Each structure stands twice: as structure tokens, then as C-alpha cells.
Amino acid sequence: MLVLITYDVNTEDDAGKKRLRKIAKHCVNYGQRVQNSVFECLLDPAQCKILQHELLKLIDKDKDSLRFYYLGNKYESKIEHFGAKKTYQPEGVLMV
Length: 96
Fold this sequence. Notes:
Largest sheet: 4 strands, antiparallel
């Protein structure tokens, strides 16, 4: 299923900047960054729970925000993209 993960981390201090980097590092291991604090991740339910658990350990619940949007398996009709950045196909071929 496609999961959209967004986060807003308070970076007023060094600890917040460190949390921001750690959260981004975890998300990049599971999906594609589509905007600064937004990732599209193709996950099975177990991977989703693992990532959610990892991210919840990293955030400061009094200062930061973390959102998971579950778009499901038929996500193609739920996404429209406009603008400069080219879109990608999460299930397409990835050349490294």
C-alpha cells in the first residue's frame, strides 16, 4: 500500500535539527522524498508499523508533528501532480 508520511519538526534548537535529520534518514530507507518533509512509501502493513514505531521514538511529541496518510493499493487515481518536479512510479523500475 502507498503511505504518505509528512512531518513537521521544531528546529529552533540543535536537538530539533538532529531529530529532523534522523527522521528524514529513516524515511528515505522506506520510500521516496517528494517534498522537503513529505515521503511516499510503498509498504506492507508490517513495514508500516515498524516505520511508524521507529519514527514515534524519534519525535518530541510536545514539539513535533507526524502524519501517516494511507492511500492503499489503488493509489494511482488518488494522486495528481502539477508543477516542476517530475513524478515517479513507486512500483516502477529503479536504476541505481
